[in-house]
Amino acid sequence: MTTITIGLDGANWDLIGDWLDDGDLPNLQRLIDDGVGGVSESCLPPITVPNWKCYSTGKNPGKLGVYRFDRIDTESRTHVFHDATDFESAELWDYLNDEGISAGVINKPSTYPPKELDGFVVAGGPDASETEYRSLERGFATPERVESFLREELDYRVHPSPMISPSETGEAEVEAVLDLIDLRFEAAKALMEREDPDFLHLTVFYSMALQHYFYDGEPVERAWQRIDAHLGDFLDEGHDILVMSDHGTCYVDAVFYVNVWLQQQGYLAVENNIDGALRKAGITRERALSVAKRLGMVETLSRVVPEGIQKVIPWDEGVKRDRVLSILDWDETEAVASNQGPIYLTRSRDDPGYEELRTELIEGLESLRHPETGTPLVRAVYRGEEHYTGHAADRAPDLILDQGEGVHTSDAIGPDEPVADSGVWLGGNMPDGVFLFSGPSFRSDGLTERARIVDLAPTLLHAMGAAVPDDLDGEVLDVFAPGCDPAEHPIRTREPLSGDRAGGETDDAEVEARLADLGYLE
């Protein structure tokens, strides 16, 4: 028997409820009927990074030192991008290995560069990216025999081609994602047979890209039916299975342009810039790419037009990601925000006015209402070092937003007003994800429970007879079937392993480009 985790990025029960009711996802329904689970609450912000690591470590970001794909360094006035070496904790498979239990990890975000395990690691998108030092043709998996097999026998790919993006959401892009879903499960089944791990983790990631651009539309339903068909291959083999997600997906009812609000309130200032002039003249990336695609010149133009010029061309929504930092009047800017929650202040924390500024921002943001519906744009705003716990909490962003229901928070500068009814994404991120344990070790109570994403790692460790580190935030869930070993044996605890990993060569520009293509760095 292998214990298997199947991670589905951005999954939540409301999104797929109608398809379950209509019988379109029979294998998932069978797991529900035979298992126990419900809603899993992710950490703030409810996005891919940090939450896949919150799952695998059982810890909140304050014990990991990473709070988003990137962070804004207001002192150096730059974006800093993270890779797997920046997370300051061991993961559940490290603890399994330490007790002589082998593990395989496939396609989990924030595993690049891949580390050595007693088992294997196949790094996942969107962070695994081609660089001068680590080409995706090589270096995306360990050990080398696993990478060679994937490359030579399965023609394995980390990213879809063509890449789905805000300007490219046609049938070719959809089919590329569906093909990648098939490839992920094919790799999982093949490596289970070849490597025979005691534990296997598999993430399906790019289906979330479909949910961003189509929410619950036909391409998303096709993706879920494809996933469900593959789930059937793991049934009837006696495995313990966890189906889970890093966060959920909601329909975007409103877009909150947080930097536009900061600008209107006098906390952020911009200088005259070519980006704004181009946007007013109707020259945007979406329009340029649309024309290039019709002419069959997308790849040619991407090669011959210098990257610096490409970045200057704004999106329809305005100036985003690193271009936001480049157009700021830093001497007149007190606060700047990233997508989906983090706000960074330019004042140092020992500045006499620092805490007064934070209080002003919290009160202003928490009072915001949609101009038409009157619903809150922001549920709550937290001081970073108070919301998180752990040795790295003092490195958290100055403020963390908990977005209002159905609200997507964008960092774009350019819209005339801070609130719009629609933006790039139809589907945005929300904290409520899914978890479902099914198999011989678990009760058959259906979707009756609620958990935190940090509870999943300790529960898996105990389910496999391993000790639970005493520095985790999560707890072992009461999900076990009476009479099985995990139900009958007490929870063992242990001292934590060191999570230190040596940093490697990193190309921030390549990682940024990959995230930007997907719209994660709007």
UniProtKB/TrEMBL annotation:
What name has this protein been given in UniProt? Alkaline phosphatase family protein
Give the matching InterPro entries: Alkaline_phosphatase_core_sf, Phosphodiest/P_Trfase
Keywords assigned = Plasmid
Q: Where is this region: Disordered?
A: 485-510
**Which stretches are annotated as coiled coil?**
none
> Which PANTHER family would you find in this protein's record?
BIS(5'-ADENOSYL)-TRIPHOSPHATASE, ECTONUCLEOTIDE PYROPHOSPHATASE/PHOSPHODIESTERASE
Biased region (Basic and acidic residues) positions are 486-504
Q: Does the keyword Cell division apply?
A: no
According to the UniProt entry, its GO molecular function terms are: hydrolase activity
What high-level taxonomic lineage is stated for the organism? Archaea, Methanobacteriati, Methanobacteriota, Stenosarchaea group, Halobacteria
